[in-house]
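SEQUENCE AND FOLD
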Amino acid sequence: MNRFVRFSQSATSRRRRKGFTLIELLVVLAILTLLAGIVGPRVLGQLGGAKSKTAVVQIADLDKSLELFKLDVGRYPTTAEGLQALVKQPGSIAGWNGPYLKGALPNDPWGNAYRYTSPVANGGFEIVSLGADNAPGGEGENADVRNAP
């Protein structure tokens, strides 16, 4: 009989040691919540910066495609022809050897169309993304992204 009591006590103590207590689980959850509160905003801030960097890269690609267009045609597309001239031949332009982009014309990382103007004051062109707010000016993620003059 003494053996049975020892066996049941050791089995009970083993069962208790197998899992976590409610307090231990709550402490772990509190620590994870604090970490998420500290790290979360930093990760989201980096995500926003990545969209601006993506816009810079896309504008640089469009810039290079426009240079190829100019080599073939002898001029940049007009504002009326727009960036669509890189994908589809506008009218019956002599020398057009496109498409100059693979696939469709990309939108900026916020889902808006890039704005294209040609000619500009220096005789070249301008490609602009108006940022997250899709309005001129702004700071941070709302700032305009444009090709280098």
